[in-house]
Specification:
It is a single chain. This protein is an alpha+beta fold. It has one domain (about 25-90, about 110-175). The chain contains three helices and nine strands. Strands 2-3-4-5-6-7-8-9 form an eight-stranded antiparallel β-barrel. Strand 2 and strand 3 form a beta hairpin. The protein is globular.
Length: about 180
């Protein structure tokens, strides 16, 4: 029952995001890892990330494996490591801000935009994509986060999409205090 409700919430968030433009804002740091249902396959996908936008540039890594992805079973599934190109919280921006800001796909959620390298020898190459996620907070149960989109735009996995609850954890962290770093130097 809970997973059915979360699927409805996830799809509502996704539909709302596909029709809006927004910009990535703020200083944030997030980590996460766990499994989620495969994109149509019979196994689980594994998703880990460590991303931040605490300084002038975003940084971090995203790792993802979905060996039984239904549209990629002929090449042994999806497997990649990625470098974060941009990360932040997506908010609906004014038209002027959209022209100067980074467009995003996940209104009122966190988004990591990345460049990936395939780790699958049968689907070699590089590409780009983005992941959208929500920290649902600490609590009881097997999941503490929702991945509302894992979307690969280009490269050997162009067109791959997955979303769902994560059996694992997504956590929001504080950025290091810049004043303390300056005082210690």
């Amino acid at each position: 029952m809970v997973q059915k409700k979360l699927k409805v919430i996830t799809m509502a968030l996704l539909v709302g995001t596909l029709s809006t433009g927004c910009t990535l804002v703020g200083e944030h740091k997030m980590t996460g890892g766990g499994t989620m249902a495969s994109a149509g396959g019979d196994k689980n996908a594994v998703f880990t990330f460590n991303v931040e936008s605490c300084g002038e540039e975003a940084s971090g890594r995203v790792n993802y494996i979905d060996h039984s992805a239904i549209d990629f079973e002929q090449v042994g599934g999806v497997s990649f490591n990625a470098k974060v190109d941009d990360f932040g919280f997506c908010t609906l921006g004014a038209i002027e801000d959209l022209e100067n800001g980074t467009p995003c796909n996940c209104e009122n959620q966190f988004e990591a935009q990345f460049s990936y390298d395939s780790k699958n020898p049968q689907a070699q190459g590089e590409g780009t994509g983005f992941a959208c996620f929500v920290d649902t907070g600490e609590g009881k149960g097997n999941f503490h986060g929702v991945v509302t989109a894992m979307n690969l735009d280009s490269g050997p996995y162009a067109g791959y999409f997955n979303a769902g609850t994560m059996n694992g954890n997504i956590q929001t962290h504080s950025c290091p205090d810049k004043n303390k770093e300056t005082e210690s130097e």
